[in-house]
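Why does residue order matter? Because the sequence determines the fold. Keep that principle in mind as you read this record.
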Amino acid sequence: MTAPVRALTLWQPWASAIAYGTKKVESRTWPTDYRGLLLIHAGLAQDRHAWNAPLARPFLRRPQPKGAVVAVARLIDCHAPDGYCTLWSVPGQWHWKLTDVTRLSEPLPWPGARGLWTPPDGLLSAPLLAEALGVAHD
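Structure:
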């Protein structure tokens, strides 16, 4: 794969909400200029406020893998806070718009990192991920 790939670690249930194809906007306190393939990594933490978020409740009853890559998405835009562009948007935060989400057939255990991180070659060459990257790249 010659195109750059980045990864983003999210707390659960937000990583699963993206992996299941429902959450198409990730809200962050910081912008990014990166556009392209993005690994969705489920961190070890669970957002304790998720039970208070009606949109999150369906994902709280589904499997919540932690410490693993769960999906590949395409980051196509990042725009300044403009209110609610979707129900998933958080006012006052940057909105990262995701498309072409491909959930991995099973979670791929891997340690995450803070911020937008560069996955090492060992992760990118994992057979589970290679298939999802191929689908997302087409």
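The CA atoms of residues 91 and 116 lie 21 Å apart.
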